[in-house]
Amino acid sequence: MKHNKSDKAFAEASEYIPGGVNSPVRALRAVGETPIFIDRAKGVTLTDIDGNQYTDFCLSWGVFIAGHANDSVLQEVSKAVQRGTSYGIPTLLETELAKRVSQLIPGMEQVRFVNSGTEAVMSAIRLARGYTRRNYILKFEGCYHGHADHLLVAAGSGVATQGRSNSAGVPDDFVRYALTAPFNDKEAVKKLFAKYGSDIATVIVEPVPANMGVVPEEDGFLHFLRAITREHGSLLLFDEVITGFRLTLGGAQQYYGIEPDLTTVGKIVGGGFPAAAFGGRREIMQLLAPVGPVYQAGTLSGNPIAMTAGIATLDILSQPDTYEQLNDKAERFISRLQEALEPKGVVVNHVGNMFTPYFTGGNRPRNFQEVRQSNLDEFARFWRYMFNNGVYLSPSQFEADFISIQHTEAELDKVIELAREYRGELVIGN
Ligand SMILES: *Cc1c(COP(=O)(O)O)cnc(C)c1O
After folding, report:
1. Is 266 in the pocket of ligand 1 (CB under 6 A)?
2. Is the model's pTM score more than 0.70?
3. Residue 276 alpha carbon, nearest atom of ligand 1
4. Which residues are catalytic?
């Protein structure tokens, strides 16, 4: 595949945009490539400016469960833009989408819309602190909750040690209330509660961690978190920015049968436009301005275009059997992928239709520490092989791949075929 135009575009972009990109993973550094520039996308097919086509499993980081440029979403959005694109004054659309989100996601009795997952999480944490009048938060190594200062806490820092930021520009004081523990580690969580229990405002978790690749919970870890937060009067915050409307219509909380106190959703809920939301029990949400003392606001929050795209997307996803069919298709594909890659020392973790291949020599990672045992060079080689054969996987070991309702069996078969033919170096188990 030739990337001449993309290469030129990247050089020019790098003149005006740091690193040539507006979000770091797009730079493809983790896989030893430079970015392709996209001309258009339809369904699950990306077309770059050189005319190359790729079957997309990144899907704008999980946004396009219903496919790129979905006809019915586009139809509604094109009508909506004619009526104006933002007023800074309420519309019926905001109530309509809030009502649906609230009816679908068990833990979101009331909802407020914002423009990004980062904002949703940042606001939910402020609310949790305002409600509990406590300062500490507990997060898990390898979970990502957006780029707000106080959440950029070094993954991998020791259990029971207070966080240090993993970004320059964040004073240590800003993260001193962030505690971290390994995912799936009940003992570490118990220890932190024993020490800080009455000061922990909230435990924040991706119920299916997807930002260290997919790492499923084990041994009722999420139920354990529900119980221990209740016991100590802390709030449980599910960051469902990826999993909301991904595993089921009711998110991971419905999938696992757990009701958190607060929830964030993003990605899918904006139907491809910048929208995200946080929500929770009415009693907690009533602390938000203008009714309560916790301040939060946004010029473009709940704007009519994103609300329209969100509603149209939920209309598609609400059709009967959507998730049964999607998850069945995904399970069949992922188990075939696992079978094809097993001889190469690859383990494919998955939950429902989210998956990640790990190059760990056959060990199944259960936390960030174990994910980091994966051979990143081997991952990069595999990624480039797929890329050069027209398959766009999420371009880092620490990300998830997604199946859309629009992936056809033929497109999935092609990936299996490629995986079978892959002649990567065997990974030595560690
Ligand atoms: C993507 C993501 C975020 C951040 O959302 P942005 O819209 O990129 O700000 C937060 N939490 C999780 C779990 C995410 O996957």
Report:
1. yes
2. yes
3. 7
4. 144, 239, 267
